[in-house]
Write a structure and sequence with these properties.
Elements: E1 22-30, E2 33-41, H1 52-57, E3 61-63, E4 68-71, E5 74-77, E6 90-92, E7 108-110, E8 122-130, E9 133-140
Antiparallel strand pairs: 1-2, 3-4, 4-5, 6-7, 8-9
Length: 141
């Protein structure tokens, strides 16, 4: 899928800029509905965020008491996602060569499950594989 350029600034809840990759038009299937939608694509977030104007255009009604959202007259029961530690994806941000018997700080990108997470918890486990070699697992919640 080809991404088109997007001229928009998107901010997280903590007022940091979210880098945008572009925009794409997709057909979303929700129940029996099929809705053509323009989406902004980012590589640092793992969830879909529906803007107020989209919700309004789709005639959405959200019943918080019953945990139901209605889109164009069709109702959907919402489910709560368990809130426990997640393993985040960590990507190397740029190509990097580390020579044998050397160490380096590697620039990475970490995805988030929510824009509202402002101070993630990190768990780092390091294990010596052999003298001078360390293997590290990182878990972010």
């Amino acid at each position: 899928m080809e991404l088109e350029p997007v001229h928009l600034d998107l901010y997280a809840a903590n007022d940091t800029v979210i880098p945008l990759l572009g925009k794409a038009r997709l057909s979303l299937r929700i129940g029996s509905l099929e809705i053509s939608t323009e989406l902004i694509v980012v590589d640092s977030l793992e969830e879909v965020i529906l803007r107020y104007d989209w919700l309004s255009q789709q005639e959405c009604q959200w019943d918080f008491g019953r945990n139901v959202i209605t889109v164009r007259g069709e109702s959907f029961q919402l489910r709560r996602r368990a809130s426990h530690a997640y393993v985040r994806r960590i990507y190397v941000a740029e190509e990097l060569v580390i020579l044998a018997r050397h160490q380096a700080n590697v620039p990475v990108k970490v995805t988030k499950h929510s824009l509202y997470t402002t101070s993630p918890n990190w768990v780092v486990e390091t294990k010596s594989v052999r003298p001078g070699w360390l293997f590290t697992n990182i878990v972010v919640s």
